[in-house]
Amino acid sequence: MLALVWSAYSVGAQNGTFLTQDFGAQYHLAEITAHGAIPLVDFEHGWNAGSFWVSAVLYAIASGSPTIWYFLWGRLLGAGLGAVLAAAIGLRLRLHPAVMVAVALGVLLLATPLHIKYTICLLWVFVLLPTGRLESRPRLAAAARVLLPALVFWQYVELAVLLTGASGLFELFARRGAPWRTRILSCVQLAGGFVLGLVVEAAAYKVLWGLSFADFNRQVILGQTATHEGSQYAVWNFFDLPTESGRYFILALYPFALLLPFVPLVWQRISDSTRLIALAGLVLVVVPIRRVDNPHTTTVSALVLLAVVLVVAELCRPPLVEPDSRGTSESVSKPTRSLIALPLAGAGVLWAAATLWIGFGLQSMAGAVLLVALAVAGAVAGGAFLRGATAAVSAGALVVLGGVPALASVDHLDDMRRDAKSFQVTDAITRWAGPEYERCSGGTREALVMPNYLQLYDTLDITNPTPYYLFHYDFAQYEDVLVPQLEDGSIPVIIETMPLHTPQPWLTDAIHADYVPCSIVRIEKQATTVTIWTHKSRGTIDQRDLTIRQGEAIPTPKG
């Protein structure tokens, strides 16, 4: 009930802007599917045929209303269902009710799936958790491992690939108490389910709609990857978090939370179920690495949040002794005192630092792959070979992982302090460039400030002779209006405070053709250069180039 109420409360009316964004694209595809179109796949986002049909059903229920459709598709089946699934996972694992409530509220309010796509991740681990009825009924478990990848493939290609891979890693490297034959058979079943989904979909399109396999391939398999060559994988700058973000701390905590279960000592103590959830969250790291921002981080953070809560809950219990794949007992290694504890901690530091630096710093899809490989290798190798050294190595790793959110938060506070003083730049421009404006303007109070520090209109007591203020990426739509004004002198003075964020060659060419730089003021303390352009119709003027250094204006040295 809480999830339903929050889903309704947190959705707003969807306007025309909504229809031009990603959500609007999905709404449009839902609409055309509801009217009989048969879309195949949007490879960039992983949407596949089945997801369009689900969206079309929701479109019909909403009677075409984008607001109601988004409530159903985004909030109810995203945040709402995500919270319910998180609580259901807790119920299956027999968590304390207080822990279950904390997990559900965390998914609902903090690590919130944006829409239905990312609730599939929680559904995946809920079905495949190696506990309870599924483990006691091998045939049911085998059917789940085959059918689940096939069904998810029809919904979301991207998630089918990643989650199948995560379950395969779990079977091969993380599952205890099962012989190798069983593990390999489980991997075969998972891969077979993925292939089953692909083959059944290809056959359905061939039989029902006459689509050739070559066309199907271009839409769903290899052909679509050609459109993805230009994808940008961002460098995750831990110490440059956006100060305007209300949830900036998610970006700071995410790398720490993602890798915490893979610290060797932690990996030994957690259950198989937690290992599966941690691996599922790990392979989805490609989503926030590709787009470093809160929305893309929160879409995949529900699994990570769930894994961390389970880790903390299990670390508070006495260590468990579980049979390993050879039938012997695997227990947490007891720490031993050693003179080489410091070098061992250094090894943990190197592992954690390399995993963070390579995984989050490599601007390539290879970064995400290496991140997964290093995390799994550290966890598995640590548990297998470190024994008494586990505690020391893990301590070093935790220092690095914990240092990321700590230092990022300190840096964030410094950013806020600096941003709070942003008016100092405007004040400095007013103080040092203001007299130059008075000299260059000849008394006119009309000038165009571009592209920033619009407070100068007030501090210099000037007005904008045009209706345009924001020099955004599509500013060229005003070219036909502004160029004549630039040519005839209707804009007598231009105060340029910095280069344009988005290049506008037509604008800069017109300025250089019809204006002269009356004054250039270089303010060293604020690292700001202000150019005051005056229209050529004013005739010959005295041009000056000044540098403001240590509170004094001096002529800029030549060369």
From TrEMBL:
This is Uncharacterized protein. The keyword Transmembrane applies. The keyword Membrane applies. It comes from the Bacteria. The chain crosses the membrane at residues 68-91, 98-126, 146-172, 184-205, 248-267, 338-360, 366-386. Keywords: Membrane, Transmembrane, Transmembrane helix.
